[in-house]
What we know:
By secondary structure, the chain is of the alpha/beta class. The chain is built from twelve helices and 14 strands. The protein has helices at about 1-20, 25-40, 80-95, 110-120, 120-130, 145-150, 150-160, 200-215, 225-240, 265-280, 280-295, 370-375; strands at about 50, 60-65, 95-100, 135-140, 165, 170-175, 180-185, 245-250, 260, 260-265, 310-315, 325-330, 335-340, 345-355.
Amino acid sequence: MRRFLQNLLNKPVSKLADRLSSRPDKKRVDKALSELYENIKSNPGKRGLVLPFDANKDKFIILSDQHKGARDGADIFALAEKNYLAALAYYYKNHFFYINLGDSEELWENLLITVKRHNKATFEVEKKFLLRKSFIKIFGNHDLYWDNDPLAAINLEKIYGQKVTIYEGVILKTTIAKKPLEIYMTHGHQGDLQSDGNWFSKWFVSDIWGPFQSYLRINPNTPANNDQLKTVHNRMMYEWSSKRKDMLLITGHTHQPVFKSLTHLEKLCEELKTVKDSKNKPETEALKDQIASRISKGDKMPDFNGYLDTYFNSGCCCFDDGDITGIELADGCIRLIKWQYGKNKVSERLVLEESKLEDLKLENQGSRTESQDKRK
């Protein structure tokens, strides 16, 4: 039956998918991010929370895009589950506050009852953070169900044993070197035609359109599986964040880690410049090989013009080798971390990038304010 429907509907569905695709539109992205930010600031507790924190004492781990599934051939989280559980055990033991940035459950491809049955261990570990009042759950485009289904609250209570409020974003507030700093976090699908909109469009995509495409095995054109769209999406996120004053933006959605507004390929290119100047031939060749590998996988060559350190992306918890990535805030620093399988398949934590919050390049922000943008 599936093959018959694929032959019959592949072309019309693909055309419609392209028209309704999540190809990000800059005006929509800017408007959606700004409206959510203003909503959280003016009415905290409804669409999101505003949390003051001490950058030198409080600790946060930001993870996204688990896409927990049914442990079948389509479950992209299955291989990463042990790394995820090890990471949460570490962060719970070390008193981190856990912020989940969405797409935690893959509800386009699976029924909730199936996801619940196959992910009891992960829900139990997340529940421990909730019981300690150190857990925030944000919805993404693949788990829009948590935001728009009338039964979502009941199902969440059954999973976690208590009521859970789902948010669209969160703003952390602190002071660094006597200057205010806000860290604005959301999943990152805001402004995408296929993922953001009114109640009906969200319901249609999450309950009808997404599962239908999944059943037909027609790959939707999204930033998570299209390298060109990742680049476009990250640039739009950066451009929005670079116009804000005293703010960092952290998202997920693309499955591509970004640290200080640079992707891994861009970071490699910057390192290559430094190594070339030092005339270190072996390291130069090694970096060239890594860059060539990234390009062969679809990454685009970078443009470094005017980059500020305003945009970060947590990556995902479903890489095809079982690795997971995330963002840590601790000890006055921001870090891009990876959990991978080491010797004897034991999970280990690696710090990929690190910077003190006070060293971030934010001084050129605010030259164009949002009110000035609106007057244009």
